[in-house]
Amino acid sequence: MNFLPKDLFYRIEWFCSKHRVYFLTALIVFLALFPLFGFNRYIMRIAIVIGIYSMLTLALNLVAGYTGQLSMGNGGFYAIGAYTSTLLMIHTGMSFWVSLPAAAALAGISGFLLGLPTLRLKGSYLTIVTLGFGEIIRMILMNWDPVTNGTMGIRNIPLPVLFGVKLSFANHGLYYLVLVLAALVSLFCVFIINSKIGRAFTAIREDEIAAQMMGVKVVNYKVLAFVLSAFISGIAGAFYAPMVGYIDPNSFTFDVSSQIISMAILGGLGTMRGMYFGAAVLIIFPEVSRFMMDYRFVLYGIILVLMMRFRPQGLLGWNSRLPYRFTKDVRKSLEAEGILSPAAR
After folding, report:
1. Distance of alpha carbon 147 from its chain centroid, rounded?
2. Which of 92, 101, 234, 235 has the lowest CB atom count within 10 Å?
3. E strands along the chain, which residues?
4. pTM of the full predicted structure?
């Protein structure tokens, strides 16, 4: 059953693509001026959390959306980034700016170690193994008391300091920091997706055997996808710890991984815009539905079920099936011959 014209989403995408520069400019200006609108700390915190989960969904998208490997272990990488950054700052006096890349690097190494034994796994088997990885990380954090302080967690995590100024909610430093980090992660993902690496990821997702026959080193690229995803998740975790000021193993339960995959599926796997949209919707929705506290998660589940029934590709997953973007000249010639619809990309 279709309630909308068949090509409506394609026409919306064509319109947005045609005016992409204006949309991006307006979005950048809006995000830059957002703190100046006078919102309270609660609203700013929600905006920052959206930025964190945008990075996490972008990380998962590299593995699940572009390489076709459904992973539930990103919550574990997120925890590794948070704890590594925190322990380095507290026990060694290292600054946030040094501990962040160190935490991301350790998370990337963990992704490499997880990627190697899961090369022969697919589908639900891969999902179960990566889910187990996330739980193993949480158990280690709970029981390694001398280092992680166990279930008591770690308090008084220092805020990032830039040129002698603490970045906090009061001066909107944390907001602008997560904005910069999310922008850098987005640019990094764009570079990867549009490179030879991204094309190899897509080839593996579409047909692994055919990709291997065409010379794609499937093993190497699968592991690389895990490493890149873990690295980005580590960045998000390293920022999350000083933002909240306190972390414990219960901050990184299975719910975190399931929330990340829900955001990615809702927005549209294999698209970057869907990651931001999915993160924003699933962070804002529980907040605005607090008045129906007893039923909001029921409504949340109904929305996801309806989405999977009528929009299985995600709310913003309306890309055409064309594998590559045509140049303007080629597109015009194909449109003139009636081969390509103006709405297609």
Report:
1. 28
2. 92
3. 161-162, 165-166
4. 0.84
